[in-house]
Amino acid sequence: MRLGRIGLATALVGALACSSEPPSAEQEASSATPTPTAVEMLATPFSTEQIRDVWQPGLEIVMRQTTPDGTTWQRWRVVEADAEGCRIEYTPVDEAGEALDAPTRQPQTWTELRDHASYPAREARREAVERETAIGRFEGWLYTVEDPESGEVTELFFAEALPGAPLWLRLTQEGREIMTMEQAGRTPAGDG
Predict the structure, then answer these.
(1) Contact, 167 vs 138, CB < 8 A?
(2) If we measure between CA atoms, which residue out of 67, 63, 65 comes closest to residue 76?
(3) What is the pLDDT of residues 150-160, one digit of tens each?
(4) How confident is the model at residue 191, as a pLDDT?
């Protein structure tokens, strides 16, 4: 399991805060041992501020997910936002947008939303591309993330003009497509 940068920093601060006794000679000697270098991370496509400015109440995104078992749809709607984060309502819908079940609501901090697109440079690459998507043609970044243990490759396209979730995502395993997910519709906050 990979700890995010924030989780790692929190664990380190927590560990330091719990230590109230002065270090022993053995601890001081071990502190001279070089620590592993930090994992180099690719730049995220957006800052927390860019995401916060767009992910305001009224923003609605319709996601289409396709697997070998078929296609499902889900509507994401931002229902609350403040300085720390937002609350997103997730509703399973049919192709026409009619609700299939009751929505669920989930809080997300701006940092969490940004860090969903945080990848170690040794496992991923990022390139500037222009891409046709279900909601139009956009310039942005294509991230390719490889998991050497599972053989999975995840490709994600983030549009520069639309901070937040990727417009398109594809998961393959050993060259076989496992899943695609894409934004099939999007209504900006304030357009409802």
Answers:
(1) yes
(2) 63
(3) 999 999 999 99
(4) 74
Whole-number Å distance between alpha carbons of 157 and 171: 12
Contact between 44 and 111 under an 8 Å Cβ cutoff? The reply is: no
Q: What is the percent of the chain where pLDDT is above 90?
A: 76
Helix, strand, or coil here: 43? coil
Question: Which residues, 6+ apart, have CB-to-CB distance to 86 below 8 Å?
Answer: 52, 55, 56, 78, 79, 80, 107, 108, 110, 113
Cβ–Cβ < 8 Å for 114, 46:
yes
Beta strands in the chain (DSSP E): 60-67, 70-81, 85-93, 104-109, 124-133, 136-147, 152-159, 168-173, 176-187
Q: Which two tokens stand for residue 60?
A: 């609605």
- The two tokens of residue 125 are 């690459």
Flag whether the pTM goes above 0.85: no
Q: Is pLDDT at 9 greater than 80 in this prediction?
A: no
For residue 189, with 0-12 CB atoms within 10 Å meaning exposed, 13-18 middle and 19 or more buried, which class applies?
Answer: middle
State the DSSP H helix or E strand holding residue 18, giving kind and residue range, or none if neither. helix 5-18
| C-alpha–C-alpha distance, residues 86 and 148, integer Å | 34
